[in-house]
């Protein structure tokens, strides 16, 4: 069956500032919490990796846009580093930081590649962390101020803005589990940060309605939770996990309410949101970005704090290098569920991809990352299934354009369709980049080229 996508479906690839740019303090930029996190001996990630050089995209941006053009990309999703723009987080604007993103956006537009910036992909200015960061209610105003600076500077050239990337990861990784910047471990803080993230999102949407002329949205990571059995305790455990990871953010933003299960999850750390906070979080958005990587199968477990739910590893299924089960049908289910719960909102897949141990390159061809080729083809097929069922999906961004700093996992986990040699910084497209170029060119049909081997992926077909 030939599977082509709607006309004007947008095909692109994604990165994030701290993961690819390098030169985090160049040209007057302030430090971010990620710069601090990777340099603080008490917090730093196991490998000792930092974003000091990363892919050196900050210095190689023009060549990188040229490469995107060769790969046939129609869109590039990137994030803006808040502390390059406002080194202290608020107040003084650093023109050199703005200039970098203006040049990037201009190069993209000249190349016919749609720029899709995200205002916050986890790198809060360290100066704002010193003032409480996501725990300070003023962060909503700070974020609104920064957002307005960006809209004023670039709304002529950018037509689609995203406020936050994956608020769940910011709160859970940064404030509950301490594995991501700023490395705190408190369930009370997790609840506060979650609320302030969504208030900040709302404030940035309001700011857009005051100054912007195009579209603004937000990006959520959605990981559907499948109960491990029909037992009521497993079903309830899956509902708690879903409320905590998925609905905790999408419900306030899109329905103006908090999922009732959160009270049970947070216990004494829970405080009902005021009507004002809910109203601030719930601003009409023009689109929602969805990042999908995997599902999780969940069973009740009294000892698993705080959810009283634990993931059940699916023996026999394929897993990526990050331990994520490969299960494409859950991507279709996610999209159907999203429309069912939140109504008709234009959706973009803003991230989807996989880390695999790529085979070594050989003299006679590109790195043959067959697993990644199969993963992408199967998941793009799953997006098509959702579109065929009537979901309004308007674009798909591969995570990631480049191998890059996978946060606390360092450089060892490679997600790129383009290989980066971290000694020479040479970029070399992998086989998946060639496949993706053909997918873009054929508006999806080329996924058929890999479908014969897709049966290797659990649940496909
Ligand atoms: C997502 C992040 C992105 C990348 C991928 C693998 O949660 O948004 O930066 O780390 O996971």
Identify the quaternary structure here.
single chain
Question: SSE string, helix = H, strand = E?
Answer: EHHHEHHEHHEHHEEHHHEEEHEHEEEH
- Uncertain residue ranges: none
Q: Biggest sheet, in brief?
A: 8 strands, parallel, barrel
Query: With helices defined by DSSP (H or I, 4 residues minimum), what is the helix count?
Result: 15
**What is the strand arrangement across the widest sheet?**
1-2-3-4-5-7-10-11
Which percent range fits the helix content? 25-40%
The bound ligands are: beta-D-fucopyranose
Mean pLDDT: 96
Protein structure class = alpha/beta
Per DSSP E runs of 2 or more residues, the count of β-strands stands at 13
Shape: globular
What does this 3D model show about the protein?
- By secondary structure, this protein is an alpha/beta fold.
- It contains 15 helices and 13 strands.
- The strands form three sheets. An eight-stranded parallel β-barrel has the order 1-2-3-4-5-7-10-11, surrounded by five helices. A three-stranded mixed beta sheet has the order 6-8-9, with helices on one face. The protein has a two-stranded antiparallel sheet with strand order 12-13.
- Helix 14 packs parallel to helix 15.
- The longest helix has 25 residues.
- The protein is globular, with a radius of gyration of 21 Å.
- Bound molecules: beta-D-fucopyranose.
- Beta-D-fucopyranose binds next to loops.
């Amino acid at each position: 069956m030939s599977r082509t996508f709607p006309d004007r479906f947008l095909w692109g690839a994604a990165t994030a500032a701290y993961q690819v740019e390098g030169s985090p303090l160049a040209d007057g930029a302030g430090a971010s919490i990620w710069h601090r996190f990777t340099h603080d001996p008490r917090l730093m990630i196991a490998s000792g990796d930092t974003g000091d050089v990363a892919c050196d995209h900050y210095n190689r941006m023009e060549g990188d846009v040229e490469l995107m053009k060769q790969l046939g990309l129609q869109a590039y999703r990137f994030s803006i580093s808040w502390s390059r723009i406002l080194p202290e987080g608020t107040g003084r604007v650093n023109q050199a930081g703005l200039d970098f993103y203006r040049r990037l956006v201009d190069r993209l537009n000249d190349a016919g590649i749609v720029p899709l910036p995200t205002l916050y992909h986890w790198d809060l200015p360290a100066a704002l962390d010193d003032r409480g960061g996501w725990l300070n209610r003023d962060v909503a105003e700070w974020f609104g101020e920064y957002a307005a600076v960006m809209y004023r500077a670039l709304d002529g050239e950018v037509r689609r803005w995203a406020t936050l990337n994956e608020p769940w990861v910011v709160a859970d990784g940064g404030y509950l589990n301490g594995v991501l910047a700023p490395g705190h471990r408190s369930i009370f803080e997790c609840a506060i940060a979650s609320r302030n993230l969504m208030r900040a999102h709302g404030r940035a949407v309001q700011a857009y309605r005051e100054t912007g002329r195009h579209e603004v949205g937000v990006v959520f990571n959605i990981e559907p939770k499948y109960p491990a059995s029909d037992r009521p305790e497993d079903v309830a455990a899956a509902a708690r996990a879903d409320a905590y990871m998925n609905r905790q953010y999408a419900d306030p933003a899109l329905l103006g309410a908090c999922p009732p299960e959160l009270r049970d999850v947070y216990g004494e750390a829970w405080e009902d949101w005021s009507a004002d906070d809910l109203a601030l979080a719930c601003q009409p958005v023009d689109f929602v970005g969805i990042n999908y990587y995997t599902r999780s199968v969940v069973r009740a477990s009294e000892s698993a704090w705080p959810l009283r739910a634990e993931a059940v590893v699916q023996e026999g299924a394929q897993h990526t290098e990050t331990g994520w089960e490969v299960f494409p049908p859950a991507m279709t289910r996610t999209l159907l569920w999203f429309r069912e719960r939140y109504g008709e909102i234009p959706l973009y897949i803003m991230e989807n991809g996989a880390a695999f141990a790529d085979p070594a390159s050989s003299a006679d061809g590109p790195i043959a990352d067959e697993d990644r080729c199969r993963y992408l083809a199967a998941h793009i097929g799953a997006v098509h299934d959702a579109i065929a069922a009537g979901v309004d999906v308007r674009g798909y961004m591969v995570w990631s354009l480049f191998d890059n700093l996978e946060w606390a996992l360092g450089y060892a986990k490679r997600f790129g369709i383009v290989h980066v040699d971290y000694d020479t910084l040479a970029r070399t497209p992998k086989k998946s980049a060639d496949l993706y170029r053909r997918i873009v060119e054929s508006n999806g049909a080329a996924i058929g080229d890999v479908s014969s081997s897709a049966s290797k992926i659990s649940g496909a077909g």
